[in-house]
Amino acid sequence: MKEEGEEPKRKMERALPYVGMVIMQCAQVGLLVACKVAMSNGMSTFTFAFYSNTMSFLILVPVCYVTYRSSHPPLYPSFLYGFFLLGVIGFLVQILGYAGIQYASASLSAAILNLIPGFTFILAVILRMEKFDPRSIITQVKASGTLVSIAGALTATLYQGPALLRTSSSDSNVQILNQSATWIIGGSLLMIDCFAASGFIIAQAFVLKKCPVELILMVFYSCFVAILSAIVSLVTEKDVNSWSLTSPERLIPVIYAGFFGNIFQVTIIAWCVGKKGPLFVAMFHPLGVVITTAIGVIFLGDTFYLGSLIGSIIVVIGFYSVMWGKAKEWKMIKNDESLGTKSSETIQTAPLLQDTHNDPEFSA
């Protein structure tokens, strides 16, 4: 009887990581929608970044205090320099991402975000953090998957095609022309954002090697991004109303982004990585494209074009090709560890690969 009672419990425990990742993807899609709503109601990218990161900072400070009240790791000046560097890169990532969402649809944003693993692979090879062997089938698959992902993103950006899903059939020719112009701008900004996010991931891997305290890193990261956003916003924003949070269409997205943008997503991802590994987490990323498309069409009035469908499919194929190569690489690393023959080159490569998905793409 005891074993029968434990069986449903074990099934529930096995199902929790899957449920967690679906919830995480919904939270990430919600962040895209929240950004879109706030920008549509007159809030600038800089003020939105300031308010959301300030909220994250205010939530994380007491949590960090309670966690490290008895003993806290030393904070050397080199650590603070690393945190500031991450803050600068993260600021660029957030601003580029928010601007891209402002110009493009939420579905295009979700599709292009799948470029991050491929761009991370390119930067890792350039910085010699990952070995590039043209004769290796794993390297060939990852390289070709990266190129396919980029081709898919370019397709979704440069080619709209006919509308497949729309909430209204009364779009004028002027609106369609304006959408075509802003579509390319938004897609270009999002691709640059993905490249910057890949740089953030690699920089984060370097910093966490020297100071492996993610919670403290997140506190300083949110603080520096909030400060940079405030400075730029004070210089660029002449309208005092752009700082106003009296409208629910501004206040609710800011609160949502402050909690679900950094804290919630990082917590869920870290837990799922611990339970199932980084590859399991990565496999759920394309799910966000489907959820975002549905929410964008139903609630935001976005139009879903044929170009977005074709580009998204190509990007997802490239994404899974890169992840297949990484899965084979992780398997080889585990086999080497079990045999006790792990090479020094593998040791240098592993931390980057393992940290690739500990940061949600859009919370950077």
SSE map:
Layout: H1 2-40, H2 45-67, H3 77-103, H4 106-112, H5 116-126, H6 137-158, E1 163-165, H7 173-210, H8 214-236, H9 248-276, H10 278-282, H11 287-299, E2 304-305, H12 306-339, H13 344-355
Antiparallel strand pairs: 1-2
Pfam families: EamA
Transmembrane segments: 15-39, 45-68, 80-101, 107-129, 141-161, 181-203, 215-235, 255-273, 280-299, 305-324
GO molecular function: transmembrane transporter activity
In short:
Its main location: membrane. The chain has helices at 2-40, 45-67, 77-103, 106-112, 116-126, 137-158, 173-210, 214-236, 248-276, 278-282, 287-299, 306-339, 344-355, and strands at residues 163-165, 304-305.
How would you characterize the overall build of this protein?
By secondary structure, this protein is mainly alpha-helical. It has one domain. The protein is about 80% helix and about 0% strand. The protein contains 13 helices and two strands. It has helices spanning about 1-40, 45-65, 75-105, 105-110, 115-125, 135-160, 175-210, 215-235, 250-275, 280, 285-300, 305-340, 345-355; strands at about 165, 305. The chain has a two-stranded antiparallel sheet with strand order 1-2.
